Amino acid sequence: GNKGSKILRWHKLRTITKTHGIEVLAVQEHHFKQKEGEGQVEAMQRLQGAMSRFQWIDWEMTATLADTPRSGVVTFWKKEKFKYITHHQLDQRVLITILQDDDGTKWTILNAHFHNDAGPRKQQWDKILAELPKVKQGNVVM
To answer: Mind telling me which Gene3D superfamilies this protein's record contains (predicted)?
Structure first.
């Protein structure tokens, strides 16, 4: 059924990240929706539980809270390689995560799921261009 295919996708993703030495992974449309009446803290706790299957392979993550299940983003990183510093959600499709690697270098990871329509896409770029200079630390990766 559907649950089996989801588990298979997680195992496939685990294999790909291990095989290719991937240490940071940015994913679009992570299908997580904040429930009506649910606070952000409760929603993030629920998301952490839902993503625990990925954490068992020594990954950490942060994600946006979205009002539809197909509009968010999530950024994963290897716990052994990076230390979480902070993150900034510019909107439900744009997440900036600051990490520090084991050498002390800071990395600004920009994870953006851009709209297909030009108007909303330009608004996203305007937000990014306004906020990124204020929050970036170290190297910027998009």
So the answer is: Endonuclease/exonuclease/phosphatase
> How far is the CA of 63 from the CAs of 4, 15, 122, in angstroms?
24, 22, 22
Identify the residue with better confidence: 95 or 7.
95
pTM of the model: 0.76
Show the tokens assigned to 36: 């009506």
| Spatial distance between the Cα atoms of 93 and 122, rounded to a whole number of angstroms | 13
Sorted by sequence, the CB contacts under 8 Å of residue 123 that are 6+ apart come out as none
Cβ(44)–Cβ(61) under 8 Å?
Answer: no
Amino acid at 104: G
Question: Which segments of 24-132 are extended strands (E)?
Answer: 24-28, 59-63, 73-78, 82-91, 94-101, 106-112
CATH number of 2-141: 3.60.10.10
Q: How far apart are CA 24 and CA 110, in angstroms?
A: 11
pLDDT value of position 11: 72
Note the pLDDT of residue 12: 78
Cα Rg for the chain, rounded, in angstroms?
15
